[in-house]
Each structure stands twice: as structure tokens, then as C-alpha cells.
Amino acid sequence: MSKLKIVVIYGGRSTEHEVTLRSAANVLANLDRNKYDIYAIGISPSGKWIPQNTNELLGLKCAVLPPIVEQPGCEPEREILNTVLSFDGNYRTKESIVVIPVLHGTYGEDGCIQGLLEMGGISYVGAGPKASAICMDKVVTKQLAESVSIPVVPYITFRQDEWVSKSLYLEAEIIESLGFPLFVKPASLGSSIGISRVTKYEDLRSAVNAALMLDDKILVEQGMNVREVEFAALGGNIPEISGAGEITLDREFLSYQVKYYGQKYWDNIIPAALTDLEIRRGKKICLKIFEVLQLYSMARIDLFLEKKSGRFYLNEVNTMPGFTSVSQYPTLWLQEGMSVTQLLDRLIDLALIRNKSVVALKRSL
């Protein structure tokens, strides 16, 4: 009996390209080679899909994969790439393939590749196109959470053309409504890229302009005295929710540089020091979020726990969370007794289950 083919796609045009090289290294290192035939496809920063020498990558045992470049040979990978990108309507020839899109941020976590794979009848790990697109946009995520009475941090949002036409008005509204400190964020980026903590009026305009270089929609949030608590979700429409983890740091916020290159400045505490009641409340909110955002397979759900009131607020949802050796999502499940290899097996099984139901739907007359 032939093995299931697992295609790990990583890299991409996102500002989080470097992070995917780290996540993909951990995924490749933990896939069960006795159970699967494994193929690696890299996407360069310019967007070119490039087959990689999978055997060579599997033998590296490194924390970060090398830069994605053209390589000689790689015929098995070229063949599998052609199959993945074939749109001949012959879904049955693709039933033995599952793609793991280890792609964070734009074009990877925003529904683009999920839609592409779904059009081709390919099974893939993670949420569908709709949920991926929703969660990529922090503002839409907040609006849907508010619709089912999930508390969110007070915020103001605006587009680039609004900022150009009435920036003085928006600055006044931000200061009056939110005060200082506050956080200025691109609406649709992750890994803390483009985020600024602003403590005075003089820095607000430059923070907004910096974020507008990365996105045309901006989210400005009120700074609160909170604990950063995270849960991992795994499953179908009604998922399992892990225990809680907590991010602590000795500076104002967890920037991209600190998160991935300055580990001495922060700690990932698992399990988090929460009461049983707090854990139950957090899990209940996560289940509600999973449902309203129409998630599937996996998500890391980030909450804020206000220190004074003990109230939870939704921070954000990651549908393709970091998968490095120190990332919260796999580490939270490791705390539950599930190895990374077992976790990947579960995610692959969920991908097959979902694709079977999607392909069976009647989409045309």
C-alpha cells in the first residue's frame, strides 16, 4: 500500500517569510517518515514556487531552513508540484496528497492558498478560505467577536484614504477615546510586524505612517494592564482546547525582533498560573470564538486577562500559528501529552476528513 504524500509548502511573499523557514524546519523534523512520503516546496520572497531537495532538508536537523533557491534535480518534488497545481478536475488522483501550508501572513494565512488548494480538490491542513481571511483581518475578527458579546480591547480603525483626508480629526478621536499608551497595528499582519507602542502625541503620526507602509487598514488599540494568555484549539467544528500558556516579558511589548531573536527578553510559561475558574472561562470563550469565526483544524487563540478586573478580552486568532520548536501552539499540546509528530498526524487526518466532505458538495448544476 502506497504511503500518503505530504507536501510541505513554506516561505512565501509575506513579511513573515523568515518565520516560515523556522516553522517548516520543525514540521519536517517531526513528520513520521515511516507513515508518509514527504515533499518540500519553497516559495521565494518574489513568489516563485521552487521544488526543494527534500531528502537533503530532512537530513539537516536545523532550527531554520536555508534560503529558498533553485536546485538541480528535485524531479519527485517537481512532479508533485505539477500535480498540486493541476486543475484538470480529476480529484480522485489527488486523494493521496495532503498539503501543509507552513505559510504565515499574507498569501499564506489569509485564505489565498487555501482557496487555490480547494479549487484543485487538494486536502490541506488548517482553516478554510473564509475563516482564514476573517482571522487575518484583526478588525473583522473583533467585529465578529463583538457580535456574540465577546469582549475586545477598545479600538479605532480607519483606512489609508481616511488618514490622508482627515488625519488631524482621527488623531484627536484616538487620543480622546483611547488615551495613552496605545498600540498602532497594521490590520492584517502577524508576528508583531509593524506594531508600535505609542505613549505620546508626538509619536502617533509616525507610528501610523509606518503601519500604512504594510497595510492600507490600521487598527489602533487602547493599552491595558493585562496578562497575555494563549490557548490552542485542535479539531473539527467542535475542537479540543488546550490548557493555557502565558507570555511574559521584561519590556513594553513583544516585537518581532524580541519574539524570534531575543528570547532572553521573554518567557513562554506553560502551564499558565491561572485558577481553574479562569481556565474554564478562557476555554469557553475560545470555543465561542472558534464557532463564530467558522474555524477548523487548528488555531491559536490569544486572549488578554485584565489584571484589575480579571476579565478576558480577545486579542487575536492565528489560523496558521508558529510551529517552531519554541512556538506556543505545539508547546501547549506537548504539555497535554501530545508530541509534535502526533499533533501533525491529527492535523493531517482532519485535512482528509474536511476535504472528503468539501469535494462531495455539489457546486454546479
Q: How does this structure look, described?
A:
The chain is globular. It has 365 residues and is α+β, with helices and mostly antiparallel strands. The model has no long low-confidence stretch (mean pLDDT 92). 43% of the residues are buried. Strands 10, 11, 12, 13, 14 and 15 form a 6-stranded antiparallel sheet that branches. Strands 3-2-1-4-5 form a 5-stranded mixed sheet, with helices on both faces. It has a 4-stranded antiparallel sheet with strand order 6-9-7-8, covered by helices on one side.
Describe this protein with a few key phrases:
globular; alpha+beta; 37% helix; five-stranded mixed beta sheet; 23% strand; 365 residues; six-stranded antiparallel beta sheet
Furnish the topology, listing elements before pairings.
Elements: E1 4-11, H1 17-30, E2 36-43, E3 49-51, H2 54-58, H3 75-84, E4 97-102, H4 112-119, E5 123-124, H5 129-136, H6 138-147, E6 155-159, H7 160-178, E7 182-186, E8 196-198, H8 204-212, E9 217-222, E10 226-235, E11 240-241, E12 245-249, H9 256-261, E13 266-269, H10 276-292, E14 297-306, E15 312-318, H11 328-335, H12 340-360
Parallel strand pairs: 1-2, 1-4, 4-5
Antiparallel strand pairs: 2-3, 6-9, 7-8, 7-9, 10-11, 10-12, 10-14, 12-13, 14-15
